[in-house]
Design goal:
The structure holds two protein chains of two kinds. By secondary structure, chain A is an alpha/beta fold. Helix content of chain A is about 30%, strand content about 15%. In chain A, helix 6 packs across helix 7, helix 7 crosses helix 9 and helix 9 runs parallel beside helix 14. The radius of gyration of chain A is 22 Å and the shape is globular. Chain B is α/β, with parallel strands linked by helices. Chain B has a domain of about 120 residues. Chain B has an eleven-stranded mixed beta sheet with strand order 1-2-3-4-5-6-7-8-9-11-10, covered by helices on one side. Chain B has two helices and eleven strands. Chain B is elongated. Classes of the chains: A alpha/beta, B alpha/beta.
């Protein structure tokens, strides 16, 4: 057969690459966008549970109790964080999200007995009021960071980085810096806000230890201190965080989202969540710290199956950002306003995109009113509607989690273990350090 | 009822002293607290929120008077990193020298360093005033958003790099300014501001000796032509 080359696309210079080069040459600017990595990476989808049969017996799916309570920050804090479910809401700023959305997150988290988290820009009264358990982020920018809000927090999360942009600072483009956001961040209205990538008052892990002690002193050793990091050199980083005194370590895999950053960060930095989690667990085990320090994993957690797999691999809890936004209506073709459903597709078209493909959080022109400060657009998602949708979503995740745990014979979701998992691919087996399905083989481990 | 309460860190922990300052000071009648033998310890007088004078009698470590509100804290010696970090109000005075990141991300109040301050003095400041009697190191007032840094001596490289709305006054030699900061003419309002800060800090120089550095505001919006400077 003769092969035709007249319309054969180059693997190295496909239409996507040509478009990228052309745009760079046209504009002289790199791409900035929201959300997370779009490339395919090994993920929790590549793992399966070995549920019970003759060698294990299951718990009755609809009747037997399966405990989901989760306690975080038990090491030294007077008041550890006690949650009803091991599914938490990740830090997302007021500024990137509307005040309505922040309130919705707080309401839903409170109804489900879990925590929500502030973000770059400080704590809004709406989210404090609506959140029973609120984690206050201490970020390099220190926008809006103050001792009064610090003392109102139920936990403090020192952010060293996030999965979408480890090693990079935050970004909020001028169209989202309205008067309220500008005032909270002590910036001129309408400017492109750049956040620092390093903390202003400490640098290395030895300094971090002293910083953590300072925060404990200011809060009278009352609340736990988390340390959040993007997943890169996970084993070393977790050990340093534990040595610095973290009560909880949060590892954010490369699939984690952002409101805005350079595309090159999103797609080319960090390691997948699936690879990061076992490394973090290994670090805790090597330090004999699993009992004292809790581990939260985030980045690409979407379903109860993902949550169950994360717990089985050794996480104490998960944290979710992007999927929370999608539950609220991100990338939906309609929005609900005053009880009526409206078509949003033309607003997606104005952004040059369509429902299902949108990552234009950075523009502030979110068609469904989530990642916006525009007074017209933000009315497209009320706290009531958002909280209801999010509560439903979290409920489904929790039901799926307990369904899998019971099927594995566990009366507590925290009893899920690595032994319950196998991998579908060699890559996933190597990263998760569980056997390839149908074999006893874990790549990288010598066979016994 | 003692007007002056004294603590000895050779006998007590920083935590015990801070607990007193946070919870027992109010209503105790003490208007001044003296802390002896700080000996390089960290986080002394962190998180204060009271109208009280605190004197730390010697050299102290990192994060002294961090996140201060209302209190007037004087360190009779040198301090380590990040003295008065995130100060909200009140006054923090260092009689000696300060290490890196003095008054980092300070939102309000006044920080006086009578000696020199190391690099990144006033980094990320958000509205506080800082007066340094001596010189400051490199990248001072980096990404400073609001407030005033007044330096009576010299400044190291990259002063005010990526400056927002904070203003810097320098009396002696400026090594070089950082990206997007520039020297501007000293006007009458600036002289009045310098005089105010010098008076508040108890320093005697002529305001006319100072140069002004402020943001050129060229990095406030994305600009392909500034290349790596963004």
């Amino acid at each position: 057969m003769t092969r035709s080359f007249s319309h054969e696309e180059s693997a190295g210079y496909n239409r996507h690459t040509i478009s990228y080069i052309r745009q760079a040459a046209d504009c002289g600017l790199y791409d900035i966008r929201g959300m997370g990595a779009k490339r395919t990476v090994p993920s929790f989808d590549d793992l399966l549970f070995l549920t019970a049969s003759a060698s294990r017996y299951p718990l009755e799916g609809y009747r037997e109790r399966c405990e989901t309570k989760t306690v975080l920050g038990k090491r030294v804090a007077k008041n550890p964080v006690e949650l009803e479910i091991p599914i938490t809401i990740a830090g997302m700023s007021f500024g990137s999200l509307s005040a309505n959305v922040k309130e919705a997150l707080g309401r839903a988290a409170t109804e489900m007995g879990t925590s929500t988290t502030t973000g770059d820009g400080g704590m809004t009264p709406e989210e404090r009021e609506s959140s029973k358990t609120l984690v206050y982020q201490c970020l390099p920018s220190r926008y809006g960071f103050n001792p009064d809000d610090l003392r109102k927090a139920d936990a403090i999360e020192i952010v060293l980085g996030q999965g979408a942009k480890p090693g990079g600072g935050g970004m909020l483009l001028g169209q989202k810096v309205n008067a309220r956001v500008a005032e909270m961040r002590t910036l001129p209205e309408g400017i492109d806000q750049r956040s620092a990538c390093r903390h202003p008052d400490w640098t290395g892990p030895d300094d971090l230890r002293i910083k953590i002690e300072e925060l404990r002193e200011i809060t009278d050793w009352r609340v736990p201190i988390y340390v959040k990091m993007g997943a890169t050199r996970v084993r070393d980083d977790v050990k340093l965080a534990v040595k610095a005194g973290a009560d909880v370590v949060v590892i954010d895999g490369m699939q984690g989202g952002t409101a805005a950053t350079q595309q090159v960060f999103i797609e080319h930095t960090g390691i997948p969540t699936l690879a990061a989690l076992p490394l973090a667990v290994q670090a805790l085990e090597e330090m004999d710290a699993c009992e004292d320090v809790q581990l939260i994993i985030s980045g690409g957690i979407r379903s109860g199956g993902d949550v169950a797999k994360a717990l089985a691999l050794g996480a104490d809890a998960v944290s979710i950002g992007q999927a929370i936004l999608i539950a609220l209506g991100c990338n939906h073709d309609t929005y609900l306003q005053n009880g009526q459903e409206f078509d949003a597709t033309s607003d997606y078209e104005k952004l040059g995109t369509a429902p299902g493909y949108c990552h234009h959080c950075h523009t502030g022109l979110c068609p469904v009113g989530i990642t916006t400060q525009d007074p017209v657009l933000e009315k497209r998602l009320t706290p009531e509607v958002g909280a209801r949708r999010l509560r439903n979503y979290l409920q489904v995740l929790n039901m799926e989690l307990t369904t899998l745990a019971r099927a594995c014979g566990k009366s507590n979701v925290h009893h899920l273990e690595k032994e319950d998992l196998v991998a579908l691919t060699v890559e996933a087996a190597a990263m998760a350090k569980v056997p390839l399905a149908g074999t006893d083989w874990i790549p990288g481990r010598s066979s016994t | 009822m003692d007007a002056v309460k004294q603590f000895d860190l050779a006998q007590l922990t920083v935590r015990e002293v801070n607990q007193y300052l946070h919870h027992e000071l109010s209503g105790s009648g003490a208007a001044r607290v003296e802390i002896l033998h700080p000996d390089g310890m960290h986080s002394i007088a962190a998180g204060l929120d009271a109208d009280v004078a605190v004197d730390i009698m010697g050299h102290a470590g990192y994060f002294i008077a961090g996140m201060n509100k209302r209190a007037s804290v004087t360190i009779h010696g040198n301090v380590g990193w990040s003295v008065a970090e995130n100060i909200m109000s009140g006054v923090v005075r260092v009689k000696g020298h300060a290490s890196e990141s003095a008054a980092a991300s300070g939102h309000g109040g006044l920080v006086v360093i009578e000696g020199n301050a190391s690099s990144r003095c006033g980094i990320s400041m958000k509205g506080c005033d800082i007066v340094v009697g001596g010189s400051v190191g490199h990248f001072s007032a980096f990404m400073a958003q609001a407030g005033t840094l007044l330096v009576c001596g010299d400044t190291g490289p990259n002063l005010g790099d990526s400056l927002y709305e904070a203003v810097i006054y320098v009396r002696c030699t400026m090594h070089c300014v950082g990206a997007d900061s520039r020297e501007e003419p000293l006007e009458a309002a600036d002289e009045a501001e310098v005089a105010r800060l010098l008076s508040a800090a108890g320093m005697e120089f002529s305001p006319r000796e100072f140069k002004k550095v402020a943001s050129a505001r060229s990095l406030y919006h994305w600009n392909a032509d500034v290349h790596q400077e963004y």
